[in-house]
Amino acid sequence: DIGDIIRGKDLYRGNKKEKKQRDDLEKNLKEIFKNIYNELTSTNGKKGAEEYYQDENGGNYYKLREDWWTANRETVWKAIPCGTHDGDTYCRPTCGGDSESPSQAHDKCRCDGSNADQVPTYIDYVPQYLA
Fold first, then answer.
1. What are phi and psi of 95, to 5 degrees?
2. Which residues touch 86 (CB under 8 Å, ≥6 apart)?
3. Burial letters 84-96, b for 16+ CB under 10 A, else e
4. From the Swiss-Prot or TrEMBL record, what is one GO molecular function term (predicted)?
5. pLDDT digits (tens, 9 = 90+) for 28-60
6. What phi and psi values does residue 109 have, to the nearest 5 degrees?
7. Residue 65 to residues 2, 53, 86, 105: CA-CA distances in angstroms?
């Protein structure tokens, strides 16, 4: 899922074309988090951040990536709704109801009600299917 990709923990490699795209994405993410690290440690002048996020994994910045995802996952979820058309639904029933008749997340993969703005954490664990 996107959280695993951002945190550098995604295990799915796919076919050769997908592997190349994933490698390119990982290279870009390393550069992005390198820039975040440099900005964080130079402008704030905080030695604690420099020590805490010290990279021991060849430019991966795993601790920083993990913390960034924890801090920003809700914003990321809001930025990537499942489609932009009215009536779009997630591929399975996900909202309310009971176990016999749950309803669809019909508005950009969000349910109705007071919790509609919460990240649906079950999507983090949707298995990746091999094509």
1. -110, 145
2. 107
3. eeeeebbeeebbe
4. host cell surface receptor binding
5. 999 999 999 988 888 656 677 888 888 777 788
6. 65, 25
7. 12, 9, 33, 29
Query: How is residue 23 written in tokens?
Result: 């490698």
120 pLDDT more than 50: yes
Q: Which of 112, 119, 82 is nearest to 95 (CA)?
A: 112
SS3 string, the chain, reads CHHHHHHCCCCCCCCHHHHHHHHHHHHHHHHHHHHHHHHHHHHCCCHHHHHHCCCCCCCCCHHHHHHHHHHHHHHHHHHCCCCCCCCCCCCCCCECCCCCCCECCCECCECCCCCCCCCCHHHHHCCCCCC
Residue 31 corresponds to which tokens in the numbers above? 């550069």
Token digits for 21?
A: 């795209």
Q: What is the pLDDT of residue 131?
A: 45
Token readout for 39 is 């900005």
**In degrees, to the nearest 5, what angle opens at C-alpha 58 toward C-alphas 13 and 64?**
85
